[in-house]
Amino acid sequence: MYANGSRTVNCVFSVTIAGELQQGRIDSAFAKLQAKHPLLRAVIKEDRKCAPYFDIRTDMVPAVVEVLPRNTEEDWIKVAQVEWHRPFNYNRAPLMRVLWLNGGAVSDLVIVLPHCVCDGGTIVNLMRELLSYTGDPSLEAIPYDTFSGTTDLITANEMPGKGAQIRARLLSHVARGVLSILIRNKQEATGMNYYMIRWSLDRNLSQQVINACKAGGTSVQAALGIAFLTAFGKVMGKDAKNKLICPVDIRKSVPGIKEDMMFAFAPVVELSGTYKEGTAYWEQARRMKADLQEKISRLRPAHLLVLTEYFHRAADKMLKHLRTVNGSHDITLSNMGKLELPDAYNGFKIKRVYSPSTALPWKNPNTLVVTSFGGQLDFSLISEESFLAREKAQAVREAFMDLLKEAVTVTA
Fold it and tell me: Maximum distance among all alpha carbons in the chain?
């Protein structure tokens, strides 16, 4: 997600706080984050072959919290949409921004990171630590040693063999050549009119959805996936591909990645919603769950971590390809599940948590991020006007909710 530094790919995460905050405490908390996490003391450089790498610095610039006024409950959305496209200076640490929308008794905290240093688990953990250090200044931030390469994260017996590494190196050259042909004379997407549609389910409906998934023998991920693909098909007709891609969290599969470490690699699997014409909703959801589990079981995270390093030379061609094709999918569905954030701190508490967002700079930027906090399912749908008109996206959202409520009602 570095995009060779040529495209801004930022992740934004926001929470609303009830209770008055103190700037000194937030500044101190941000400084503790920078002291703890090596990647927040890093800059990005390139070697002689133009492959990017992180350079951990000791002469880092002090972290500074940006303070803005909070006039309405939706100011954070405007800030998020600006932050999607506000570039980081990769030659200067920290590769993180903290924005405090100060509204007195009610505030918003917004954190922003480039996707190349952060996955969903990272951004949630950084928010958790920021809030914890702000609430209790006596908490100590314990630094850890970062890894110098992917091989530091896996054991020798998990390493791919030399044959696999040679094949990956050759495939990288082949990919570069093939992609050069595919993108020849292709026009890159230039749209920049991104938007975000947000909504959440109340606790009662959220629990009904969860209970219905359990009763139906499937997962929330699969149930939402089928509902969205069906809704997308109803609205978009023949333009719908009836496929989605899902990022997979590999942290538990790679013991070298600790829960509170910054990390930013998530392979994806592609799933289809059409298994057989006329198949009932919950049967489709069960089959999608099984399909997802089967594809995840075939992933070899340790091998992927090592072998994808060989594809940096083809990165520029891959990026242009993503900027010129619609892709084979309708949506990227990122279900982050239940967010483990304490809701109360010394002097303040969390009032609302909003699903993280990112505006992918590809031709197909359609992204649906789902989270759960305080018993409520929360959704952020992000796209770009020239690819998917906001009016169409609103219609998809409405059809999605109708389908979900109908399925839950039938199960009940």
Answer: 63
